[in-house]
Write a structure and sequence with these properties.
heterodimer; A: alpha/beta; Rossmann fold; seven-stranded mixed sheet; 5 helices; B: alpha/beta; eight-stranded parallel sheet; 13 helices; 9 strands; 13% strand
Chain lengths: 202, 294
């Protein structure tokens, strides 16, 4: 079956939260894998969207704007009712239930602790090849930019990938997905396809 | 094996800043106000451009003490400026751990001939440009982000508009040229043909394009976005206004929702006096900052 279409043959619509960050890159990838991209800036843009991506950017900025435009609550509701949701980098911080140094978490949906800027400043940003068994045997080349670390996950959370030192960098809880890196910046489309596949299972 | 300081990492951080506002700050307190207002990064300075302009004399890299104070106050990325061509100031800023270096015409140029050779650095650079040729020369030297120059410290948006239009219209023009004409353009711009070809084909710069120099109101911020900027640098416009906190929030919102006139109207209400500003025509040619760099 073509992954971008549902059993009924309807073209998938995947939203990208377009408040700040590299949402344009995600939208382009979606177009490339034949999914209809939706730039989500207002609560009404969520209607008819099958899944949502929270892009990389500044988590503080995105969360403030998301609250201001009344997007946080509708996103949480949709995700609770099974809409697949994927956070990349800043987006992973969005999903977490625990963020050290930040008393108020944002969506509080994924049972994990995410530490911001945990690898250091920009000069410590790095690229590395990851093993992601769920995506097949080929390594996934990952780009970490001022990236967060997933330092702890709860029982219901599956670890999808770790760095060689054991640091968790990708995790899944049901239809929720978090990566501390940016698959939208490299040509490998497997993570985006993985999200689309979650729509069928939701 | 992990790699650091790659082109993807350097240009990638600028991609993460897109749709956002980078604010000039001179104290830790300003930095916190900026972060709270939704800035996606701050530029750590001793003085904002309007004060640099007023003070005259030689403007240099800020005191590292000041930069470190600002770095410890916020968790968003912190940028700092070095003089054009002053690669040692750049080395110092890199050693401090700043997230981005702005090789800036707002400071007094240190080299009349060369800009900093930016590729060897692990830290990314942003540079100013008035036209496409200047932007591509900076990218060829290793700039991982471009900002149109405008005229800093004036609160006059006219130059920013001129420079932004010059860049975007030249990109469109490139798209109409044949192989022969593209080669002539590459010669004219003094950059490799491949770089010119890529821009012609993709119809955009290979790095993020922000706007700087003269943004003072939410409407200014939305104007530059509608003209093709991917984000804004706001210097004196915020902390030289009557209500920095409100102006900062309003400019962030106008940058996000740059086509939503109702929202821009809403956030523009009751902002108080913007920075007083100084019209470009009132500045003698030799005191203009944008002409620095080439």
């Amino acid at each position: 079956m073509n992954g971008s279409q549902s059993a009924a043959g309807k073209r998938r619509r995947v939203g990208v939260l377009g408040l700040q960050g590299d949402f344009q890159e995600h939208l382009e990838v979606l177009r490339e894998i034949d999914v209809e991209p939706v730039d989500v800036r207002r609560p009404e843009h969520l209607e008819g969207v099958d899944a949502l991506i929270i892009p990389g950017g500044e988590s503080t900025t995105i969360s403030k704007l998301s609250d201001l435009y009344g997007l946080t609550e509708p996103i949480r509701e949709r995700a609770r009712h099974g809409m697949p949701l994927w956070g990349t980098c800043a987006g992973a911080i969005f999903l977490a239930t625990r963020v050290p140094g930040r008393p108020q978490t944002i969506l509080s949906l994924m049972d994990m602790t995410v530490e911001r800027n945990a690898f250091g400043r920009q000069v410590d940003s790095f690229e590395a090849d990851l093993k992601v068994p769920k995506l097949g045997p080929a390594p996934f080349h990952a780009v970490f930019i001022r990236a967060p670390k997933i330092t702890e996950v709860g029982k219901g959370v599956n670890v999808l990938s770790r760095l060689d030192d054991g640091t968790i960098v990708a995790a899944q809880q049901g239809t929720l997905l978090a990566t501390s890196f940016h698959p939208e910046l490299t040509p490998d489309r497997r993570f985006h396809r993985y999200l689309v596949d979650l729509i069928d299972r939701s | 094996m992990a790699e650091t300081g790659t082109w993807t990492l350097k240009s990638g951080l600028a991609q993460m800043l897109k749709g956002g506002v980078i604010m000039d700050v001179v104290t830790a307190e300003h930095a916190k106000i900026a972060e709270e207002a939704g800035a996606c990064a701050v530029m750590a300075l001793e003085r904002v451009p309007a004060d640099i302009r007023a003070a005259g004399g030689v403007a240099r890299m800020s005191d590292p003490e000041k930069i470190l104070e600002i770095m410890s106050a916020v968790t968003i990325p912190v940028m700092a400026k070095c003089r054009i061509g002053h690669f040692v100031e750049a080395q110092v800023l890199e050693s401090l751990g700043v997230d981005y270096i702005d090789e800036s015409e707002v400071l007094t140029p240190a080299d009349k001939q060369y800009h900093v050779e930016k590729h060897p650095f692990r830290v990314p650079f942003v540079c100013g440009a008035r036209d496409l040729g200047e932007a591509l020369r900076r990218i060829h030297e290793g700039a991982a982000m471009i900002r149109s120059k405008g005229e800093a410290g004036t609160g006059d948006i006219a130059e920013a508009v001129t420079h932004l239009r010059a860049i975007t219209s030249a990109i469109r023009e490139l798209g109409k040229l044949d192989a022969h004409a593209l080669r002539s353009k590459a010669d004219e711009y003094r950059v490799p043909l491949q770089l010119v070809k890529d821009v012609a084909e993709k119809q955009k710069l290979p790095v993020a394009l922000f706007c700087a120099g003269g943004i003072a109101t939410p409407a200014d911020a939305a104007l530059t976005m509608q003209l093709g900027a991917e984000g804004n640098f706001v210097g004196s416009g915020i902390f030289k206004s009557e209500n920095p906190d409100k102006v900062a929030r309003a400019i962030v919102q106008a940058t996000t929702h740059f086509t939503d006139a109702k929202l821009i109207a809403e956030v523009s209400r009751g902002l108080g006096m913007p920075m007083r500003g100084i019209a470009l025509e009132a500045i003698p040619e030799r005191e203009r900052l944008a002409v620095r760099g080439w």
